[in-house]
Design brief:
about 325 residues, alpha/beta, eight-stranded parallel barrel, two-stranded antiparallel ribbon, 11 helices
Length: about 325
């Protein structure tokens, strides 16, 4: 069986999609996950509205991948569709709906998304992430978020996904209501759906001190899709811990990434407690082989895509490092 091993192409947004696909094949990989909105623009699927509306446009887009020998292994629309600021939340929610329709038009692709994070009460303007609900006020926030915002929204989205025969793979990401396996199962159970599952990204589990392989075994067939992304825990974690808020607000005169509305990515701490790194720079090939085995126990055809956010390495350099480890790990699995 030919495994689907690819790249989430957001790191290659500086070049057109056909060149990005050439870069993927040059790495010895055979799949691509394409951003379709949310925090990042749909750079590699610029005609997404046409793809939703036109079979010929969808066929033409798929032809780009067929010509390069690369599988389209999902659409990614990570964002915050529950943000209380409508300029962000409504936009990201509409992007998610559109991505589901586009995925159906492209043959039933997986859609990778985040669960989102609402405000803590009606009238809020900023999201509120409760991670340690030791007091009744925090529990009140969680009750409001889940009962009034999260469940109604995701019931609508799950129905749309079911209508289009599309599976939504949620990245368990901090600063979202779903950030670990139990919160993912809570969402699935409260919504009552088979069309929502996990995008198993080990990186965010690593720095929360979870075991990604145990998480795969715990979730079983609720794992729909996977990312290959590593984390290195630094010595500073002994002092700062992993819940580290020492980020710097970037100014309007600096190169910075907009997250929607008036929200921007902040600068990572210089002496960080942990860092996103290319595969092998946090966990060795033996781990990644075991991780792939756990995924293939769930689904032998599961797509696994490299997500490169190692700031110490260039775009292609980081992908080369990660691809070498991923391909070696896959070869050990067989």
């Amino acid at each position: 069986m030919t495994r689907k091993l690819g790249v989430y192409t957001a790191v290659l947004h500086d070049r057109p999609v056909d060149q990005a696909l050439d870069d993927i094949t040059a790495l010895g990989l055979n799949a691509a996950e394409i951003n379709a909105g949310g925090f990042l623009p749909p750079t590699h699927i610029p005609d997404i509205d046409d793809i939703v509306a036109s079979r010929s446009a969808a066929s033409e887009y798929l032809g780009l991948f067929a010509d390069k020998g690369v599988a389209l292994a999902g659409l990614n629309v990570n964002g915050n569709p529950l943000h209380p600021d409508a300029a962000i939340g409504d936009k990201h929610a509409d992007d998610l709906r559109r991505a589901i329709r586009a995925a159906a038009a492209l043959g039933g692709q997986r859609v990778v998304a985040m669960s989102g994070l609402p405000g803590g009460e009606p009238g809020s303007t900023r999201p509120n992430w409760i991670v340690n609900a030791w007091n009744s006020g925090a529990l009140d926030v969680l009750d409001y978020q889940w009962d009034e915002v999260v469940v109604p929204f995701w019931k609508e989205i799950a129905a749309l996904a079911a209508d289009h025969d599309v599976k939504i793979a949620i990245e368990m990401h901090p600063q979202n209501v779903v950030f670990n396996p139990p919160t993912l199962l809570r969402l699935i159970e409260k919504v009552g759906t088979d069309h929502i599952g996990a995008e198993m990204d080990p990186s965010h589990l690593f720095w929360q001190w979870m075991d990604p392989i145990a998480a795969v075994d715990y979730l079983g067939d609720r794992v729909f899709h996977a990312a290959a992304k590593d984390v290195r825990i630094n010595e500073n974690a002994k002092i700062y811990g992993v819940l580290d808020e020492r980020f710097r607000r970037m100014g309007s005169d600096e190169e910075r990434t907009n997250l929607g509305g008036d929200e921007w990515v902040a600068e990572w701490p210089k002496d960080s407690a942990w860092d996103f790194v290319a595969l092998g720079r946090g966990h060795d090939t033996e781990f990644w082989s075991a991780f792939l085995r756990s995924l293939y126990r769930v689904d032998p055809d599961m797509a696994v895509n490299i997500e490169h956010e190692d700031t110490a390495l260039g775009r292609i350099e980081g992908l080369e490092v990660a691809a070498k480890v991923l391909l070696e790990a896959a070869a050990r699995v067989g």
